[in-house]
Amino acid sequence: MTSIVSPALAVRRAGTVEYQTAWDEQRRLHAGVVEGSEPNTVLLLEHPSVYTAGKLTEPWERPFDGTPVVDVDRGGKITWHGPGQLVGYPIIELPVQRGGLADVVAHVRRTEQMLIDVCAELGVATTRIKGNNRSGVWVREDDRGPDRKVAAIGIRVARNVSLHGFALNCNPDMTWFDRIVPCGITDASVTSLSAELGREVTIDEVLPIVERHLPTLLAV
Q1: Cβ 78 vs Cβ 180: under 8 Å
Q2: Contact 78, 183 (CB under 8 A)
Q3: Model confidence at 177, in pLDDT bands (50, 70, 90)?
Q4: Annotated binding site for substrate: which residue ranges?
């Protein structure tokens, strides 16, 4: 299903899609946005269980049991995608700075803010954390545990159009993260909306909320 959430942004709910199939579709849309034949588009979907490793992934961060990993050309390190996790791939043209290059950091910050707003609407207080490997959206340390990431972000920009995107943990099996060092972070943890709220938070519940907040991704 494709819908228009703003005059400048189309959103497609794609259901469950194999990682390689989604990657092929990202590249197709990217080419279209670059040449002007496709609108700015966000793919919202789930993947069957898969580990993906960004360009900065170290060998010791990969699965300890030899589980296969898909190496991808985004920034960041290794993460897991799978059922219960809402993945968003914004294929959008970014504003150009002086010198003709897109402001990638600003795009990451807008993505973080969008996810912070989504979590707040659901009743989970989240924030950004400064530091290496700390992009994404976090629940701060409290009496329940250390800092923990509820949404990961990994971006690539080519010809001023973004690829890859974000992954928001709704109600996944969190044990998949036990086999890796998620995002290369050893001194923090990962969490889900369900774990934080103490109830089942499904993809179907979260999808319309994310869609309402997606215009935040567009620079004003």
Answers
A1: yes
A2: yes
A3: confident
A4: 74-81, 152-154, 165-167
